[in-house]
């Protein structure tokens, strides 16, 4: 069994998101708490900007929940930067007991999973889950300098600038009910410009495990979202899940395809990065759950567990996906 | 005529590289290395002279021309100075381009800051 | 499904680059950049009476300057999006590959950032170019006399 049903359902007390310029021009622009006006947000380095986004997301989410940092028992945070500096520097002044995570772009689901477990098991009254990514910090670490003149192949994805945070506790709707922790899946893709295809098998593996473990069918959910598979990965998931007998054609989407207008914004295969699912979940999806338009949602953060070193050494790209089920009502 | 030659030869050298990038997934850095080495070899064999006669700047501006300069320089230096020319010839001939790259690279990097892509 | 089957499946699903369009753009823009070089070559020879030999040095210096400047102005990467290899192969692209990491890593300091990272992309060109020239020199020295 990869799935646990939380003994006490965990409440999502609040969520907050901050998005970058390009994301702010996308179709979900009205759902972010803040949209940046430039890539720097008054900071000297983009790493500082990314940290500031995490500080903002957590502070804003706490404010919405009417809680103080001192009320929090734990914060689970991670990002894409080496040694996770966006999280540790962004959260160092909050004085909340801190667990730093690395799950690549699956971090939102990983942090939410762990935060839910601590709350549900009673070890925490409140816990926060947060993650972030920034196009400029990711480019310089994983790819080329910004001013370098290169062409992106059609399968390339665009790292989302943004941060999302959720405050978890107990009591009120909506609830986190199930957690499916993914296994590392590597099907031999080694093209770092085709991360969607590298991560899709992990998403398929985790989603299948979730349905098998819970006995739920895919149409139990109004919306199933994956983190950042983009256009190619999304098609792969739909086709392969259909082959396995799960028809997700009408209720499945990928945050990488939701966060940008792929055609108009010339985004090639779509958005990626920890922030991709974080801002989509903490903005748009939570809003739709609150309004009642969505009753049962399954979100699966997807991560490509590669590094610039492993890519240079010719390694294939291991993928991971963690799924978290959210429901407005529990029985 | 020199402009037509420049346009066509320069264009062809770029087009070949583009096909290599799209077809073989060779990264641009590898293309540049490949071009400079090919240029050196063609220069050594005297074949680049032919391309240059037709292509003018279309042969000297692409990085292959840099390879040709290195090869020509080393051969000239060997003629003039003998063995030591093997070590000094290449860079001596290419000194202008290399020094300019470092100098302008340094100055521009000092003055300008990279911008986000929106 | 084996890894190989999956990779084949993915290759079929992944859209190819638009090679024809890319190649035509690379040809045109790369060709035009070379024409700019030719114009400078003529300009130096006519206006400054530079010898053909000196013009051959002056042109790359000028093109490197322009490549560096356009990179600094945040224009080179915009052109490169369309031009692809058309902006990589000319020596302006070599300048771009030197300036862009130097600018990018300035925040890590002038010595270990700007200075050290300057040749992360362009360094290999010098390594293999100069090594190739030494090999050419060696061959030329030992057997060249016989030719």
Descriptive key words:
A: alpha/beta; Peroxisomal Thiolase, Chain A, domain 1; 11-stranded mixed sheet; two-stranded parallel ribbon; C: 147 residues; mainly alpha
Question: Could you explain how this protein is built, in words?
Answer:
The complex is a heterotrimer of chains A (331), B (118) and C (147). With 331 residues, chain A is of the alpha/beta class. Chain A has two domains: 3-169, Stage V sporulation protein AD (Peroxisomal Thiolase, Chain A, domain 1, 3-Layer(aba) Sandwich); 175-327, 3-Layer(aba) Sandwich (Peroxisomal Thiolase, Chain A, domain 1). Chain A has helices at residues 21-24, 46-64, 85-91, 107-120, 135-142, 195-214, 230-243, 255-258, 274-291, 308-312, and strands at residues 3-19, 34-35, 74-79, 98-101, 127-133, 158-159, 162-169, 175-180, 223-226, 252-254, 271-272, 296-304, 319-327. In chain A, the strands form two sheets. In chain A, strands 1, 2, 3, 4, 5, 7, 8, 9, 10, 12 and 13 form an eleven-stranded mixed beta sheet that branches. A two-stranded parallel ribbon of chain A has the order 6-11. Chain B is globular and about 55 Å long. Chain C is mostly helical. Chain C has one domain. Chain C has eight helices and no strands. Chain C has helices spanning 3-13, 19-47, 52-72, 76-83, 85-88, 91-104, 110-117, 123-143. The chains are: A alpha/beta (331), B mainly alpha (118), C mainly alpha (147). Chains in contact: A-B, A-C, B-C. At the B-C interface, helix 1, helix 2, helix 4, helix 5 and helix 6 of B face helix 2, helix 3, helix 5, helix 6 and helix 8 of C.
């Amino acid at each position: 069994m990869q799935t646990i049903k939380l003994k006490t359902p965990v409440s999502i007390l609040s969520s907050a998101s901050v998005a970058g310029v390009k994301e702010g021009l996308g179709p979900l622009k009205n759902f972010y708490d803040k949209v940046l006006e430039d890539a720097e947000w008054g900071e000297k380095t983009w790493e500082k900007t990314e940290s500031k986004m995490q500080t903002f997301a957590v502070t804003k989410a706490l404010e919405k929940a009417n809680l103080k940092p001192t009320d929090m028992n734990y914060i689970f945070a991670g990002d894409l930067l080496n040694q996770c500096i966006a999280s540790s520097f962004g959260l160092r002044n909050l004085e909340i007991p801190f667990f730093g995570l690395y799950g690549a772009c699956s971090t939102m689901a990983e942090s939410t999973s762990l935060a839910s477990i601590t709350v549900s098991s009673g070890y925490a009254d409140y816990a926060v889950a947060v993650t972030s990514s920034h196009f400029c910090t990711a480019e310089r670490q994983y790819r080329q300098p910004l001013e370098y003149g290169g062409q992106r192949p059609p399968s390339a994805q665009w790292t989302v600038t943004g941060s999302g945070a959720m405050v978890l506790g107990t009591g009120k709707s909506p609830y986190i009910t199930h957690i499916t922790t993914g296994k590392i899946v590597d099907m031999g893709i080694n093209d770092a410009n085709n991360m969607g295809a590298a991560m899709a098998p992990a998403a398929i593996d985790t989603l299948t495990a979730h349905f098998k473990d819970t006995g739920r069918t895919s149409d139990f959910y109004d919306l199933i979202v994956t983190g950042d598979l983009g256009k190619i990965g999304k098609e792969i998931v739909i086709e392969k899940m259909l082959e396995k007998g799960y028809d997700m054609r009408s209720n499945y989407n990928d945050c990488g395809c939701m966060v940008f207008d792929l055609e108009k914004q010339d985004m090639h295969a779509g958005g990626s990065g920890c922030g991709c699912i974080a801002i989509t979940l903490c903005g748009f999806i939570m809003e739709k759950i609150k309004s009642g338009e969505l009753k049962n949602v399954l979100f699966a953060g997807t991560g490509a567990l590669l590094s610039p070193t492993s890519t240079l050494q010719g390694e294939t790209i291991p993928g991971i996906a963690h799924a978290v089920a959210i429901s407005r009502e529990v029985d | 005529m020199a402009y037509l030659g420049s346009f066509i030869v320069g264009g062809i050298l770029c087009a070949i590289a583009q096909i290599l990038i799209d077809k073989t997934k060779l990264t641009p850095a590898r293309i540049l290395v490949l071009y400079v080495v090919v240029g050196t070899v063609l220069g050594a064999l005297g074949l680049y002279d032919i391309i240059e006669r037709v292509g003018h700047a279309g042969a000297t501006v692409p990085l292959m021309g840099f390879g040709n300069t290195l090869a020509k320089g080393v051969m000239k230096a060997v003629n003039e100075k003998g063995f030591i020319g093997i070590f000094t010839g290449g860079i001596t001939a290419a000194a202008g381009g290399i020094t300019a790259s470092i100098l302008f690279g340094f100055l521009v990097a000092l003055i300008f800051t990279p911008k986000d892509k929106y | 499904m084996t890894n190989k089957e999956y990779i084949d499946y993915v290759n079929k699903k992944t859209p190819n680059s638009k090679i024809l369009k890319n190649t035509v753009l690379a040809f045109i823009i790369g060709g035009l950049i070379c024409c700019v070089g030719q114009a400078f070559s003529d300009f130096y020879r006519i206006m400054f009476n530079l010898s053909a030999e000196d013009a051959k040095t002056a042109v790359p210096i000028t093109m490197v300057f322009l490549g560096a400047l356009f990179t600094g102005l945040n224009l080179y990467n915009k052109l490169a999006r369309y031009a692809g290899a058309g902006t990589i192969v000319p020596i302006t692209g070599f300048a771009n590959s030197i300036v862009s990491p130097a600018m990018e890593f300035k925040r890590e300091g002038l010595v270990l950032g700007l200075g050290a990272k300057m040749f992360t992309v362009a360094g290999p060109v010098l390594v293999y170019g100069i090594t190739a020239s030494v090999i050419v020199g060696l061959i030329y020295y030992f057997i060249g006399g016989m030719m």
